[in-house]
Specification:
single chain; six-stranded antiparallel beta sheet; mainly beta; four-stranded antiparallel beta sheet; globular
Length: about 160
């Protein structure tokens, strides 16, 4: 049996999971069965974020989206995830990875279409200024100086 880790290490099971979303109400239901453990925060990382994400069956990682100023990386640990991009769908299993470069207008999301939970690591920049486009829904996100505002595609706030 291993000892309880001491800083700079952490046992992910001790990091509280957060569920839900900051999306406007009409876009939240698809991600309600998603849980994120903010490992990067627990380890006081400031240059990039790391989340241990669990998607229950039927859950989405997010609305399909892309960032103007943030790279994203995912690495599948358990289960199977359907990666949805502009090119279509493909299944990612344990040990597979996907990356989404900043500024590439190719909306992406993962969906758990399996019978059990899927678990993956999500790594991204901690940009204080970014825009996120959501090609499938009337949603846009602008972050300036770490303050984020959701609008519709016409720029009206939610």
């Amino acid at each position: 049996m291993s000892e309880t880790p001491k800083p700079p290490a952490v046992d992910p099971a001790t990091v509280p999971g957060r569920t839900g979303s900051t999306y406007p109400e009409q876009f939240k239901s698809a991600v309600e069965a998603r849980s994120k453990r903010a490992l990067g925060n627990a380890l006081s990382l400031t240059q990039f974020g790391v989340n241990l994400v669990t998607l229950e069956p039927g859950a989405w990682s997010s609305q399909r989206h892309w960032h103007t100023n943030e790279d994203e990386f995912v690495y599948v640990l358990e289960g199977a995830l359907t990666l949805v991009t502009d090119a279509g769908e493909q299944v990612l299993g344990p040990g597979m990875a996907a990356g989404f470069p900043a500024g590439v207008a190719d909306g992406h999301q993962m969906i758990n279409r399996g019978d059990g939970p899927a678990v993956y690591l999500e790594v991204g920049a901690r940009s204080t200024d970014d825009e996120v486009s959501y090609p499938d829904v009337d949603l846009h996100l602008v972050t300036k100086a770490s303050v984020s505002v959701f609008t519709n595609k016409n720029g009206d706030p939610y």
